[in-house]
Design brief:
The complex is a heterodimer of chains A (97) and B (790). Chain A is α/β, with parallel strands linked by helices. Chain A has four helices and four strands, in the order βαβαβααβ. Chain A has a four-stranded parallel β-sheet with strand order 1-2-3-4. In chain A, α1 runs parallel beside α2. The radius of gyration of chain A is 12 Å and the shape is globular. Chain B has five domains: 112 residues, Beta-Lactamase (2-Layer Sandwich); 114 residues, 2-Layer Sandwich (Beta-Lactamase); 180 residues, 2-Layer Sandwich (Beta-Lactamase), CATH 3.30.450.40; 225 residues, Phosphatase 2c, domain 1 (4-Layer Sandwich); 122 residues, Heat Shock Protein 90, CATH 3.30.565.10. Chain B contains 23 helices and 32 strands. In chain B, strands 2-1-5-4-3 form a five-stranded antiparallel β-sheet, sandwiched between helices. In chain B, β17 and β18 form a beta hairpin. In chain B, α16 packs antiparallel against α17 and α18 crosses α20. In chain B, 34% of the residues are buried. The model of chain B has no long low-confidence stretch (mean pLDDT 87). Classes of the chains: A alpha/beta (97), B alpha+beta (790). At the A-B interface, α2 and α3 of A face α22 and α23 of B.
């Protein structure tokens, strides 16, 4: 499996810090893993940015630890377009960061 | 007796020769003159003998035409062919006239010429008018045409040909469709056909296409030339250039309309928007007003565009790239001179572009022509007016710049006036506010809100008040009133009355007695002034309100849940200070159920249009909306709903009391973005008061705030309140365009459109209602009340 870019996000992702999120995701230029294990809050602001990323790079995997965050992702059907896992290991990547 | 004419064989010929209205003569084969008819002799004044001799005849030909004629005759005679010539012949009255002469040989059976017959036709009048007409047609400054009765164009004068670049085709004439503006062609054609059919004159204003493709306005008129019977046989038309006049008229109309808008009683922001909308209808394709913001920035205050999509693009671009130092908007602002950039150049774009991306956006926009006029009045720079045209329209010219300057002058005047009014108004408001209660009571379950808005100075400032105070843990007094009169005296009197009511109420008096006491005090203190007042005493334990009025409008009540409204009406006593002896005002009472909302106000709220009935109707209508009760400031909500941005000439005071308000959580901010950080506090409050899907509730909160920030940036009001076992979250904004989608976007990777879907999925219930006031979102959160709040 090709080496994927990895991005680690933390805390609350909402309208007040969307520009930071946009910058982090904007720097990705290929298939990527977005690690949301330490994200405590996420709403459609972040969902929109993730959709943009997915459209741009084609393949995105999400690591989601919080059941709440996962639920939000599932409500909007992101399970269809993203690979969602509970732990990074499930992706079977050879090289950890 | 004419020797060439014999009485028998040539009788008919003789009759003809002597009868026709031409000159006729006959020349023998050898060139000598044989015969001249009577017309010739009469005209020339020669006698029969003289007319037979060449030297007499040639002497009558005009000197300038003589040689040519002689040469022509000699050549024709030698070649034995006919010829015709025009020359001037002197008559017996010594004046020359033009004649068209034809000379033709007559041959015998062998082909030998036996005689020559000449005829001469007087064409002097015809030539003169033809000359005159041609001269007129060529030199007249108008465009001239002549057409037949069926509309076929026979003649276009030089100017017409030069202007349009085309000439009438002898076979097909002119296709007017080629030269008339497409928007005018149909109507003009109809009018012309009508004139042709009815033989009436034709007059029309249309745009004519110049040879280079540009159009100019012309006033066309055509008159028929009739025959003896009155039937038109020709049409003579002319068209005069009225482009300048038309442009002046249009500019005048624009300025007049703009002046009308400015004179209307609207808030300055609404006025600026309305004038911009007017300007982009015909004069420019985009109209932007720039104003200096805080800390040296230049911001766009309003923007209108004929094409709304282009308008959004421009707005977004300017928000991202505001004008910098070299931008003409900045250099014009604060000066006296307006600037015309008739043709935008690449270099011009590079001057204002912040970076390559900005430059690309500017190029994509396709601006072709720009005018910038300073909005300056009395030496103060209020901003700049920016007008632009885009691909396809004619460039602006100096005449347009004059119009833009006049327009900017009027706008700046309005902005100056508004600023003066506003600062004076704020001064009065501050003064008044210092005389109003600094704190409003907040007993448990009761929320009292109030607003006061001063009118413009010079009209009816000062004198309105509101008040609310507790006289015991379960009794609350509310009052509003309006001192009739102006000036400082009125303000002082207002204070006197307010405190008089407090004093009397604290002594345990009922509404009627309170009013009576104040009436007496007013008469004693200030006999020249009077005031209206409405006093209400609320008993929380009994859940009742008792009230009385002295010449004041009734209060309004909103019933819980159903939202039905009614007036708290009571027969009013006369205004305070004017009561006849022994007046005892009526007192009325009403029960108050939990969840009710009472509103008391002064007549500035209802009488802005001099129609208090209509004003009261507007209050009740606004109250009926649940948003009025959910609002974090129902007094302000009502004021906004009823006045809707109108300027008022009277003070306005509104005080509202919500009875039986459940504990909850509220938040309001002038900018919805400030609500985002409040989510944390909301979450904390919620964790203490409720249990269930707390996380889901905070996501709902976040989505609704995000929604307002994106679709209706501006003020936001949020209230979470228990309604029975439900916790209802209300979000109010001032936007009207939001139509929430309850479905996910069909494109799974769309970058927007999920917010409300998430809200609907997480909430127990979600509703949206939109009014001209704004949008009210009402969501039942997925939580239940904690038995023992923590």
């Amino acid at each position: 499996m090709q080496s994927l870019a990895s991005v680690y996000l933390t805390g609350e992702l909402d309208l007040s810090n969307v520009s930071g999120l946009r910058a982090k995701l904007g720097a990705i230029d290929g298939p990527a893993v977005v690690d949301l294990s330490e994200v405590t809050y996420l709403d459609s602001t972040a969902l929109n940015e993730l959709a943009l990323l997915r459209r741009r790079v084609g393949t995105v995997a999400l690591v989601v630890a919080s059941a709440n965050v996962r639920r939000t992702l599932e409500i909007v059907g992101f399970g269809q377009s993203f690979r969602i896992v509970g732990k990074r290991e499930e992706l079977g990547l050879r090289d950890p960061e | 007796m004419n020797p060439a004419v014999t009485t028998d064989s040539t009788d008919l010929a003789a009759t003809i020769a002597e009868g026709v209205p031409y000159h006729v003569w006959v020349v023998r084969a050898d060139g000598s003159i044989e015969y001249n008819n009577r017309q010739f002799l009469d005209y020339t004044g020669l006698n029969e003998q003289q007319a037979l001799h060449d030297e007499h005849r040639i002497a009558l030909v005009h000197a300038e035409d003589r040689d040519a004629l002689a040469a022509r005759w000699a050549a024709a005679f030698a070649a034995q062919e006919s010829f015709q010539a025009e020359f001037r012949l002197r008559g017996r009255d010594e004046r020359y006239r033009w004649f068209l002469t034809r000379v033709a040989p007559m041959r015998d059976a062998d082909g030998t010429i036996t005689r020559w017959v000449g005829t001469g036709v007087d064409i002097d009048d015809l030539r003169e008018s033809a000359e005159w007409l041609r001269g007129f047609g060529e030199t007249a400054p108008q465009l001239i045409w002549v057409s037949r009765a069926d509309g076929f164009v026979e003649f276009w004068n030089r100017r017409m040909i030069d202007f349009t670049g085309i000439a009438p085709d002898p076979q097909t004439g002119i296709d007017w469709g080629r030269v008339l503006h497409p928007d005018d062609a149909r109507a003009a054609s109809d009018a012309y056909v009508h004139a042709l059919e009815h033989g009436t004159s034709f007059e029309f204003q249309y745009r004519l296409r110049r040879h280079d493709g540009a159009y100019r306005w012309y006033l066309a008129r055509a008159e028929p030339l009739r025959d003896a019977g009155g039937t038109p046989i020709r049409w003579f038309g002319s068209a005069t250039d009225i482009e300048e006049r038309k442009r002046s008229e249009d500019a005048m109309a624009l300025l007049l309309a703009a002046t009308g808008i400015i004179a209307g009683a609207r808030e300055i922001d609404a006025t600026l928007v309305e004038v911009s909308e007017l300007v982009v209808r015909e004069f420019a394709e985009s109209c932007a007003i720039y104003r200096p913001g805080d800390d040296g920035r230049v911001e766009i205050s309003s923007l209108s565009a004929r094409d709304p999509e282009r308008g959004s693009d421009i707005r977004a671009m300017i928000r991202r790239y505001p004008p910098r130092a070299h931008d003409p908007v900045r250099t014009v602002m604060g000066r006296d001179e307006a600037r015309l950039i008739a043709n935008v150049t690449d270099e011009g774009r590079r001057t204002i572009a912040h970076d390559d991306r900005h430059l690309a956006q500017l190029e994509a926009l396709g601006t072709t022509s720009v005018m910038i006029a300073p909005l300056t009045a009395r030496g103060q720079a209020f901003g700049a007016l920016h007008l632009a045209r885009y691909a396809g329209g004619p460039p602006f010219d100096p005449q347009d710049l004059r119009t833009a300057q006049l327009l900017a002058g009027r706008l700046a005047g309005a902005m100056d006036e508004a600023q003066t009014r506003e600062s004076e108004r704020r001064l009065a408001e501050t003064f008044q506010a210092s005389a109003l209660p600094s704190r409003l009571p907040a007993p448990p379950g009761i929320e009292i809100k109030a607003i006061y808005q001063a009118a413009e100075v010079g009209v009816n400032v000062g004198g309105d008040w509101y008040d609310a105070f507790e006289i015991s843990p379960w009794r609350l007094v509310l009052s509003v009133g309006d001192v009739i009169g102006k000036g400082v005296n009125a303000a002082a009197t207002m204070s006197l009355i307010r405190h008089g009511i407090r004093f009397a109420a604290q002594r345990g008096q009922e509404p009627a007695e309170i009013l009576k006491a104040v009436d007496a005090a007013l008469k004693a203190e200030n006999p020249d002034l009077s005031a209206t007042a409405f006093v209400a005493i609320m008993d929380i334990r009994e859940s009742r309100i008792r009230y009385a009025s002295a010449g004041h409008p009734p209060a309004a009540l909103r019933l819980p849940l159903s939202g039905r409204t009614r007036l708290l009406d009571v027969e009013p006593a006369p205004p305070l200070g004017t009561w006849p002896v022994n007046t005892l005002p009526r007192v009325a009472a009403a029960p108050l159920a939990y969840g009710s909302l009472i509103a008391m106000y002064t007549d500035g709220l209802t009488e802005f249009d001099r129609d208090p009935i209509e004003g009261e109707r507007l209050i009740l209508e606004a109250l009926r909306d649940e948003a009025a009760y959910a609002s974090t400031n129902p007094a302000r909500y009502l004021r906004d709903a009823v006045l809707a941005g109108r300027r008022v000439h009277d003070d306005v005071a509104v005080i509202t009391l919500a009875f039986g308000r459940r504990e909850g959580w509220t938040f309001e901010a002038p900018d919805a973005m400030e609500a985002e950080p409040a989510r944390g506090k909301f979450g904390a409050w919620l964790s203490g008061a409720a249990e269930g899907d707390i996380y889901g509730a905070t996501v709902i909160f976040g989505e609704l705030v995000g929604n307002v920030v994106r679709h209706a940036p501006g003020p936001i009001e949020m209230r979470a309140e228990w309604q029975g076992s439900d916790l209802v979250l209300h979000v109010l904004d001032r936007g009207c365009g939001f139509a929430p989608s309850l479905q996910l976007p069909t494109d799974g990777l769309s970058e927007t459109g999920r917010g409300f879907f998430i809200v609907d999925a997480l909430a127990r219930k979600a509703d949206v209602s939109v009014s001209h006031q704004g949008t009210h979102v009402r969501v039942v959160l997925p939580v239940t009340r904690k038995v023992r709040p923590t």
